[in-house]
Amino acid sequence: MNTEFLTATNIIVCITCLISFMLMENREGKAALIFHPVTIKRNNQWYRFLSSGFIHADMLHLLINMFVLWSFGNALEAYYYPLALGEGSLVKYLVLYFGGIVVASIPSYLRNQNNPSYSALGASGGVSAVVFAVIIFEPWQNLYLYGVIAIPQILAGVGYLYYSWIKDKKANDNIGHMAHFSGAIWGFVFTGLMNPNLFAHFVVKTLEGPSWF
Length: 213
Hints:
Blueprint: H1 8-23, H2 27-33, H3 37-43, H4 48-51, H5 59-85, H6 89-112, H7 124-137, E1 142-145, E2 149-152, H8 153-170, H9 177-194, H10 197-208
Antiparallel strand pairs: 1-2
Helix pairs in contact: 1-5, 5-6, 5-7, 6-7, 6-9, 7-9, 8-9
């Protein structure tokens, strides 16, 4: 068996895809796992902070989240975290991802704990955490929008934070933009705190600019 396939990232992707696909059209099943602040507060169902990260609204939502997680997560798990964080890097990676899902939902819980019409689902908080954890290592490395448009990660990251902040303020759609924002901040700060030298590394790398300058 190819042990390179059995990474924590790939296992998370497979489990999330399986659960999401099984419950895609199952409203009762989704209702049991979805992030619903009123239910959490009333019934002390705190597990929903985490279980909501295993279900998605539709196939596009699922595929985008899992493709990004697969791309960035494997690089982080196999290379960046072991190199910078040493022993226990796998446990720290799992705390990064699942912590991102939980932390990303806290602002929404505080805002909507008395709002029965609010609910949320998806792994976007954890995925954002993983992406921004990679940014602290390589701010000027390109990511590819739609698979073809090269954008330096730091520029894409700043744009993503700004977009999420503005969209959250407008609150004119059903997307948890503050969850994206909170997950991203968690990923960057948590990774840096695990090895404070990474903050200085990030500043130096950022000031150096892209290698093609």
